[in-house]
Amino acid sequence: MAAAQQVLAVDVVAFGDAATEAWRYAEEKHSSRAFFTAVVAASPAVVVAEKADLVRVRKLDAKLYLLKEGKPFAEFPVVFGAQPKGHKQQEGDERTPEGRYVLDCKKADSAFFKAIHISYPNAQDMARAKDQGVNPGGAIMIHGQRNRLGWLSPLAQLVNWTNGCIALTNTDMQAVWEAVDAGTPIEIEP
User: Fold this and answer.
1) How much is the CA Rg of the chain, to the nearest whole Å?
2) What would the pLDDT profile of 5-45 be if each residue is shown by its tens digit?
3) By the 8 A CB rule, do 181 and 111 touch?
4) Each residue of 74-93: pLDDT tens digit?
5) I want to staple 115 with a disulfide (CB 3.0 to 4.6 A). Which of 42, 110, 155, 162 is the partner?
């Protein structure tokens, strides 16, 4: 139990007051699962009433911003592929692409809690990959947590874990899902 307590202590620092209460509850129950359940239960629901006309992602800040008429109205913490620096070059490089794309379709039945497809690769990406003799990759999405593992998002969102996608907590993904229509442009900045 000592090793689990050390890991959970880090989470308490990362998640503030809700996590402190969850930590106390977990100690009483002697359960790390109780900690994560309590953090998820204590997390506030995110409600976004506006529709975005642009999504901006800043990899350096690890944030996704929803904008309308050039002004941000919501922001969310995100994680990326295991190699977040630099533009995606080829399939399997675990990088998230950089540039301007379109959120071209929404997928409610993905392996993750909802997903919105990013139109990577574009013509420029395909030409560069062809010149380099590599496959540019694809299936880059904004998505929530892997199905049935949403309760782990307080831990999963501490590290870059995707294969190049942009991941949010399920609560945040629901808010983005409601605020973004297919056809909305996305800018992914370094």
Assistant:
1) 18
2) 333 333 333 344 445 555 555 566 555 554 444 444 444 45
3) no
4) 999 999 998 888 889 889 89
5) 110
Tokens of 182: 């297919």
Of 160, 75, 44, 163, the C-alpha closest to 111 is: 163
Dihedral over alpha carbons 73, 14, 167, 31 (to 10 degrees): -130
Nearest one of 42, 43, 58 to 174, comparing CA atoms? 43
Closest CA to 118 of 71, 158, 166, 162: 166
Whether the Cβ atoms of residue 100 and residue 185 lie closer than 8 Å to each other: yes
Strands 141-143 and 166-167: parallel
How would DSSP label each residue in 104-123?
A: EEEETTSSBS-EEEE--S-H
Q: Are 82 and 121 in contact (CB under 8 A)?
A: no
Q: Which pair of structure tokens corresponds to residue 132?
A: 């380099």
Contacting residues for 37 by C-beta, under 8 A, at least 6 apart: 22, 151
H or E element, residue 29: helix 2-29
pTM for this entry: 0.74
The whole-angstrom separation of Cα 34 and Cα 179 is 32
